[in-house]
UniProtKB/TrEMBL annotation:
Residues 27-154 form the Ferritin/DPS domain. This is DNA-binding ferritin-like protein (Oxidative damage protectant). Pfam families: Ferritin (PF00210). Transmembrane segments: none annotated. Keywords: DNA-binding. It comes from Mycobacterium numidiamassiliense. InterPro entries: DPS_DNA-bd (IPR002177), DPS_DNA-bd_CS (IPR023188), Ferritin-like (IPR012347), Ferritin-like_SF (IPR009078), Ferritin_DPS_dom (IPR008331). Belongs to the Dps family. One of its GO terms (molecular function) is ferric iron binding. The lineage of its organism: Bacteria, Bacillati, Actinomycetota, Actinomycetes, Mycobacteriales.
């Protein structure tokens, strides 16, 4: 009996874990803190939006909260899968976020739509800024960014197209569900 040895088989010491380029995990950390900040600001907005048709925006803000929370968890879990240590502590988020601060107090529907849309685009801008470097190093992680960008932009589009009477849109990481009537 003859046993055939594969010439293609590598030695165990030739197999290496993912090697990140400089700045790779730092870029993912920036995305993470911006997503956490968006989640928190959208929840704050949810509690403090006032005015005509506030309930429809209230529901949309819940959807944005869910999308941002899911996305931050996706990024943090990806970081762990690549052996990085995500940091979502409140002190870290406050110190590192690039998202504009949300003012305290009650905010009217129209102004809140503009503010939240602006914050969504700020987070998307962060992801677009780091995308090419991440894509060059790890296309799988870049694919995650694509999905998150798509979901957030759909949420921003739903928020931004508010007309009387508005209908809530529900964006998720898995795509846009039909408008709820």
């Amino acid at each position: 009996m003859t046993i055939s040895l594969s010439a293609n088989r590598r030695d165990a010491d030739e197999v290496a874990m993912f090697h990140r380029p400089a700045g790779f995990f730092e870029d993912l950390q920036t995305v993470l803190v911006d997503l956490i900040e968006l989640h928190l600001q959208a929840k704050q907005a949810h509690w403090n939006v006032v005015g005509m048709n506030f309930r429809d925006l209230h529901l949309q803000l819940d959807s944005i909260v869910d999308t941002a929370r899911e996305a931050s968890d996706t990024i943090a879990e990806r970081m762990r899968a690549l052996d990085a240590v995500p940091d979502g502590r409140s002190d870290t988020v406050v110190a590192a976020t690039t998202v504009p601060a949300l003012p305290a107090g009650l905010i009217g529907v129209r102004q809140m739509v503009q503010m939240i849309t602006n914050r969504i685009y700020a987070v998307v801008g962060t992801m677009r800024t780091v995308h090419d470097g991440i894509d060059a190093a790890d296309p799988s992680t870049a694919d995650l960014l694509h999905g998150i960008i798509d979901a957030l932009e759909k949420g921003a589009g739903c928020s931004n197209r508010r007309t009387a009477p508005p209908r809530p849109c529900h964006a998720t990481l898995h795509g846009l569900r039909r408008d709820v009537r």
